[in-house]
Design brief:
- A hairpin with a 5-residue loop joins strand 6 and strand 7.
- The protein is mainly β and about 170 residues long.
- The protein has 2 helices and 8 strands; from the N terminus they run αβββββββαβ.
Length: about 170
């Protein structure tokens, strides 16, 4: 009888924790949500064989926020060994987001590039480490079309790519 009472007491306490709001970890608070477009260029164009490529990327964001309406990110790299076949990989990066208020945010992240349903998807997960929203988590997803084998086969190859962008910053 005593074991039954102890078991029922523990069960009641567990059920109470599940039913009481705030007993579980709270959902994150959204700081800002932005959508936009990335325009990337590759020089020389991506081909079926690996070669050193210079990449330039520009992202324009439109945001849902009381004080920030938009932002931009410019990034790139030189002499990156890439091909149409080696575009799928994981790495890390740091991007600066410049908001229309002239404030900035430094986004440090790990990312993966994958393909699904005819789309190339880059998912970047990290944190804002400096500037506006410092200490908040951030997730950015870039979704663009997959590269055509025919375009990769012949010069000049894939010289540009456009992706839809979603950025969510929360704490």
């Amino acid at each position: 009888m005593r074991r039954t009472r102890i078991f029922l007491g523990v069960l009641l306490a567990a059920l109470t924790m599940l039913a009481v709001p705030g007993a579980a970890q709270a959902d994150p608070t959204i700081d800002i949500v932005c959508v936009g477009q990335e325009d990337a260029t590759f020089d020389p164009g991506l081909r079926l064989f690996e070669q050193d490529v210079d990449i330039a990327s520009h992202i324009d964001y439109e945001c849902i926020d009381d004080t920030i309406d938009s932002g931009t990110t410019d990034s790139g790299g030189d002499d990156i060994p890439l091909s149409c076949l080696s575009i799928l990989f994981s790495s890390s990066g740091v991007w600066e987001i410049v908001w229309d208020t002239t404030a900035t945010s430094t986004f440090e992240f790990d990312y993966t590039v994958s393909q699904s349903g005819g789309q190339t998807i880059m998912t970047a997960i990290g944190a804002i480490t400096a500037g506006e929203f410092t200490g908040s988590d951030a997730v950015m997803t870039l979704t663009g079309g997959s590269f055509s084998t025919q375009t990769c086969l012949f010069a000049p190859g894939v010289t540009d790519n456009t992706s839809a962008v979603t950025l969510t910053i929360s704490h």
